[in-house]
Amino acid sequence: MRQKIMAILSGTLCLVLSVFLAGEALAQTKRTTSLPASPSPAVEMQIKVFEGLRGGKVEPVKTVTSSFWRYTLSASIKSEDTADKEESQIRRVFNLKELRLLTQDNFSWVKTGTKDFHIFRLDSKEYAIMITWLRTLSGERVTCRVEVFEQDQSQKTSLLDTELTLEKNSITAFGFEDASGKPYFLSLKITAVRPMSGETLFGGKIEPPVRGEVGGVLGGELRGVVGGEALPLDTVRALGGIKPPQLIKRVDPVYPEAARQAGVEGTVILEVTTDIYGRVANIRVLRSVPLLDQAAIDAVKQWVYEPLIIDGQPKGVIFTVTVDFKLREEEKKKVEVMKVT
Predict the structure, then answer these.
(1) Which CATH class is domain 247-340?
(2) Contacts of 328 (CB under 8 A, 6+ apart)
(3) pTM, two decimal places
(4) How does the average pLDDT of the chain come out, rounded?
(5) Are 272 and 300 within 8 A, CB to CB?
(6) CA distance 195 to 227
(7) Where exactly are the structural domains of the chain?
(8) What is the pLDDT of residues 76-117, one digit of tens each?
């Protein structure tokens, strides 16, 4: 009997020890094995779209009734550190009295030959900016193909299709006019150029390192990743054929009293993420006006959009929203009087 009990205890001990050792082996495997990191963008670019005013009285923002664009001219401008200085340079080069930011976005590419998109609406028309990274040259210069399209419900028109070389931290600005002669400007600025193994750089090939191995496959299909950021499986970014959703409920922002008294106006640009029901789930400030940011956020988080359906499945969407704050003329005069007194 005693031998039988000892045999049972011995078998149990061996089983427990086996389970323990297996658990340790699994834990060690998890500690030493990691998923390959997503490739970082090799080239990054900031794009901005402006509405200009050549002269005369500055009017409050209103709906544009004739938004057809035609390409007019372009210019290369040495960039300054701040957005205000950059806008000042564009005003000076194109002889503008005012410049108002309509929308902006950050483009990025992992490999040459790939495209990035930005779509925005102006009045009843939709505009698509499509840029293809072609090659990288010496001196942190990048050659790209830039295409701009205008489309409405009936037709699609090519406004610009050009190949150009951009230098890091310099601005290339393209001018357009609508049917009424109002100027608009597209500015492009390379913000980062990083060497990538196997990509063309400085006119030659970068040799891979002699030792070590890169996890994953560079240049392969990068699903669910935009600009190096992994997106949730049920969320997409409004790029290319995916359009921003239609707004079905809008709440106007409340002008902050502190901003009103200080005479602060401006444009706040937000990156908005909606959930599968079209509700605003997350907001990130892309362009800030400190006294106006919270008012813009408080309003937009109450907005509701039509749910986006792709292949029969609802998806969340990431896109940009522009919120303008403009004082009435009598309010501006009141502020000026207060400053004088």
Answers:
(1) alpha beta
(2) 60
(3) 0.51
(4) 74
(5) yes
(6) 16
(7) 43-207, 247-340
(8) 777 666 677 778 888 888 788 888 888 888 898 888 888 888
